[in-house]
Write a structure and sequence with these properties.
mainly alpha; globular
């Protein structure tokens, strides 16, 4: 499970929420991203550093991009529906996608954003699983 991997990045290596999700997913899903590639998500932690869209959501969307876009997003039949599922699940859980709204629901100083990261791991895995299952059944 993705959730079994994130702690070494978040606690042992002190990456932020967005970096943690991308690094753990890179390992879990074999995305073949290099350390330098993953730096691009760094500014997305803490809601793009200003409480805006939650960094875990942005990182999850980046993972979906790596999984479902071959060259260009507008050429992918998959990216819109799978990303829509991702956002729907975050809204269902937190009634928002904004860090400033999510943080009061799950942040604790002693564990930081642990609960949000774990929720993001669960949502990402679930969305990928459900999306793949729906593609399999619609193609039959």
């Amino acid at each position: 499970m993705l959730k079994d991997i994130y702690q070494k990045y978040y606690y042992d290596q002190n990456y932020n929420c967005a970096e943690t999700i991308l690094r753990a997913a890179n390992e879990y899903y074999g995305l073949d991203l290099h350390d330098r590639d993953m730096i691009m998500i760094g500014a997305c932690g803490a809601g793009i550093q200003c409480g805006n869209t939650c960094g875990t959501i942005i990182a999850c969307a980046a993972v979906l991009s790596m999984k479902y876009i071959e060259k260009k997003a507008h050429e992918s039949d998959d990216i819109r529906p799978v990303t829509t599922m991702l956002i729907r699940e975050f809204n269902k859980k937190y009634q928002s996608t904004l860090c400033k709204d999510i943080k009061p629901q799950s942040f604790k100083p002693e564990i930081r954003c642990k609960h949000t990261i774990e929720t993001a791991c669960d949502i990402l895995e679930s969305v990928i699983y459900e999306y793949e299952a729906s593609k399999g059944s619609s193609g039959s």
